[in-house]
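User: Structure please.
Assistant: Input sequence and predicted structure:
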Amino acid sequence: MTKYFLGIVAFAILLSSGQAQAGLVAAWTFDNDFTAGAGGAAFDFTAVNGASAGVAGGKFGNAASFSRASSQYAFTDGNVLTVGSDHSYSVWYKSDVTEISGSARYFVLETTFGNSPSGTGAWSASWALRDAGTGTGDKGQVFTHPGGLAKEVFGANSNSGIPEWHNIVVTWDNDGGGVGTGRHTVYLDGVQVGGAVDDPAPLTAVEGMVIGGHRAGTGRNWDGLIDDVAFYDHVLDQGEVDALQAASALIPEPGTLALATLALAGLVAGWRRRRQNRVLG
């Protein structure tokens, strides 16, 4: 009985171990550290100025924590996007600031160029909060940098003023607006906001990404928690966006889940047969 019980435990661990979901280019849970849970070591983050991971209170498990006063951020030189290809990204964030004031911008993430944080324009992916000017919340902004021109894809109230978890999903359909024209779609907390936005030029090359800050690393840093960042190689549909609202991006693939479930069922059946034989014998 003991060995069957141990087998069941082993497969239960497999089911909850965070297998990579299909289509993930890279993903990070920050449950223990800044290493990539999908994509390999090339996407591991390096913490700067004391940024920490494995902090309790994440959206799913633990999270990464950043202090704006200490200019904390984390950087990877992994290429999360490929020019000319569809992509999507998702990130959960929780601000420690109840109301941003003035012209300050608090960046959750932004891609960069040159394999190091720099001021060079390559923000093909960018998400930040700033003062909405209404006194009722902060404005979230998705920016992109096609063809050398900065363009706001989305800007609207996206933080209630009360520190709580929010999710942003951005998709890029490389031919969505027609030949030679890409299309951005933005979802806030699982709901599409505004209409899709067409960009008349391809996205700029990407050679790295900063979380907890903008492309130069310091200057517009985040204050609070970031959890479950994921980049995909396709345009997420509404069903996939809905799934991200309820569970981590790092879940067992359907095939892995089915095989593990069958194996678990086999272990239970074997244990029952063994027990029956003992009773009859």
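Residues 254-280 form the longest helix (27 residues).
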